[in-house]
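Q: Give me a backbone?
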Amino acid sequence: MAIHHFIPKFILKGFSFNPNADKNQQSITIYNKNTNKFSNELINFAFAEKDFNSDETETILGEQYENIIARVFQRIQKRAYSNEKDVVLSNEEYRLLFRFFTIMWRRNNIQLEKINEMAMNINNEMKTLFGNNFKNMLRPEYQDKNLTNLIKSNIENIKKPLYDKIIKDTTDEDETVQKTILNYIPTIVYNKSNVHFLLHNTYGTLRYIKKANEEIQDSDFPQTFIEPISKDLCFCLLLTQNQIDIKKDKFKIKIEVWESDEDIIKFFIKDYLTETATNYVVDETNYRYVTGDKNEQ
């Protein structure tokens, strides 16, 4: 059995509390919101599952995305640490970066949860539509089971084909990729404050400007995306009114230095928190903002 990471190891290493240790001993601290517990886990096994992907999908992720994006992230880190003001990406790298952001949103168990939610809605709608007759319409072996339970019991058979399709379908022409690359300007934030960035198990966080209790629609545009690189670097994608010209040969991405603890906490810690995420990579500088321990703030 192979261990497949849904948060790539090259990203996890940027959050290691012992980065100078042997690569097989590098670890991160994870806070589990459901259990309210902390644990130190080896990066080799963190945010990973046995045989999560098919061999084909794992090869695509490694060769077409992670190996290349890892080198881009290394170049960004080198430029930021050398106090450079920007980093230049080729057209191919720039397009790949936006596909990578989309892939990261699609490659974890959020998709399975969405299927379960959709199944529950369908099941409830059918009950509303057909009433007591709905149960009689089902084959005998399914009459005491609802659609959600059927999906859960067959999740291992559903998972790999689902992710095979999701990963293959994420191309430059993909609707979500196009929506993001045409309408968002990426900036790299270099965090020199005393509060490190977080990382959660769904990777990126989208922030919408909505009124209280107003539901988010698929047609809505987030105001910002926060996409982590390491504990002191992240991408911030800002919505622009003018569409981006994506035919340029090169793209210069600005590197902004932020030093204020207050600003980092407000815009990149609290705005990064999301109800969807269940596990966060934390350290002594930021865990209190995830746990809500007001005595530590």
About this structure: The chain has a mean pLDDT of 87.
